Amino acid sequence: MKLEVNQLDQYSMIKITGRIDTISAVEFEKVAQNVLNAENQTIIMDCAELEYITSSGLRVFLVLQKNMLLKKGRIIFCGFQPSIKEIFDISGFSGIFQIYPDLNSAVESCK
Amino acid sequence: MFKKEISIKNQLTQLEVLVNELEILSEEWELPMSISLNLNLVLEELITNTIFYGYEDQNEHLIKIEMSFENQVITLKIEDDGKEFNPLLMAEPNIELSVQDREIGGLGIHFVRKLMDEVSYSRMNNKNILTLTKRVLLN
After folding, report:
1. Once rounded to an integer, what is the mean pLDDT over residues B14-21?
2. Quick one: pLDDT band at residue B101, thresholds 50, 70, 90?
3. Which of B41, B96, B114 sits opposite A54 (nearest CB)?
4. Which residues of B touch A69 (CB under 8 A)?
5. Of the candidates B67, B131, B45, the residue with the CA atom closest to the CA atom of residue A90
6. Is B15 in contact with A21 (Cβ distance < 8 A)?
7. Residue A26: predicted pLDDT
8. Is the pLDDT score of B104 beyond 80?
9. DSSP designation for A103
């Protein structure tokens, strides 16, 4: 798993490459928590290169969203590959998160 | 008929062995990527549960995974010698709840039920045996 963080005025972005599994979910949570501490508006999860995710990864997203909502902020997603979209649908996460088709539309929503 | 059997230890680091074996197997059996990823997910969710909750001692245990592919059906059989536990008895998570009320518990088994066609559990010779099948339509 590779993570790339960008922190801008209107939003922060975490680009995730590879797999969030039971083991890498721990590191992902650490990095994401740091981003969350510095961001009060929107964190965009760029998932164009995300290939695989387990319930451990979904758990991190849920915890982050709960924390962002407390600050009146939010996490949004973009660029899902079909297999990832399927996991979000099956788990019901598609209903509780905003998912954009690509980075551009996600960034637009922050303006 | 394709068949493969692997045994891994009850340690999270062994999940990497599983990933590698599935990659090799998926290429040999010519499985589509989506099937391969789903098999990986199902196995990781179940085996992680076993590693975390399945044993009452601190000892090393082996988890046996048999995989076969015949007549367009993939069959997985996971066998462990942990305490008696049927994951199918876990309550379904409520996937309609809002973010504030959502919990993660039960999500792993939920994926197993939704991604596989048939799932069955048996307890024999002090072993938990979980059998899962998935019909794969290949062109």
Report:
1. 96
2. confident
3. B41
4. 99-100
5. B45
6. yes
7. 97
8. no
9. H
Q: What is the mean pLDDT of residues B16-25?
A: 96
**Minimal-distance CA residue of chain B relative to A56:** B104
Nearest Cβ partner of B100 from A21, A66, A91?
A66
DSSP structure class, residue B59? S
Regions of chain A where pLDDT drops below 70: none
B138: pLDDT strictly greater than 80: no
Residue B114 has pLDDT above 80, yes or no: yes
DSSP state of B97: S
Smallest Cα distance from A9 to chain B, Å: 26
C-alpha distances out from residue A79 to A22, A63, A101, B56, B137, Å: 22, 21, 5, 42, 27
Across the interface, whether the CB atoms of A55 and B115 are under 8 A apart is answered no
> H/E element holding A101?
none
| Calculated CA dihedral for residues A110, A108, A67, B44, nearest 10 degrees | -170
The answer to whether residues B133 and A100 touch, using CB atoms and an 8 Å cutoff, is no
Distance from CA of B39 to the nearest CA of A (A): 11
